[in-house]
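SEQUENCE WITH STRUCTURE:
===
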Amino acid sequence: MASEWELVGRLVISAALGSVIGIERERLSWAAGLRTHMLVCVGSTLIMIVSAYGFSEVLREGVVLDPSRMAAQVVSGIGFLGAGAILARGEVIRGLTTAASVWAVAGVGLAVGGGLYTAAIAATVVMLIILAGIKPLEKRFIGNRQRRELTVYTNRNALSLATLHEELGSGTARVKQFVMQQKDDDVDEIGITLSRVTPVQFEAICKRLRAVPGVHEVREGDGDAG
């Protein structure tokens, strides 16, 4: 059995590794941030320690324990916390990455609790690269290809966000941005950014918007760009 100081050290290491991922999530103002990730990591470490060493006094001839059973319960049980980090707003679902990070941090805690320090540290580094390093690349090479911008000129209050969703239909595209400005006394200039839309879908959307009552003009791209 590991010494008491080593067990304390495992909990401290676990808190430190969990904080690394938590800080990255805290930076994006997610509800599951620094403290949540630290608690999940430390808690799973403690459960792993209890699973490995907590029942040593009852071990005797004829008594067999399976330390992996409690660890397995952590893997499945952490799902409720991950579900709480997922937010559904209409057709937009957010928080899946944070839920996955909470689940992965529990794995880091289990690794630390089992004394697998190298694996735990390596997993934390890989997770941090995935969360902070790959996101800019994802936006640059994937998100921008599926993002389209358009500018709509309408009569005052002729087009709202709710009206836009009705015209687009469910599942056609995601409205990432909807900015309305008063061009003059009777005209609104609306900047709309759509994501996950193909060129064919974008052309169909522009055609639908041009048919909306009160719409004067629909321009592809930024209206101020000419």
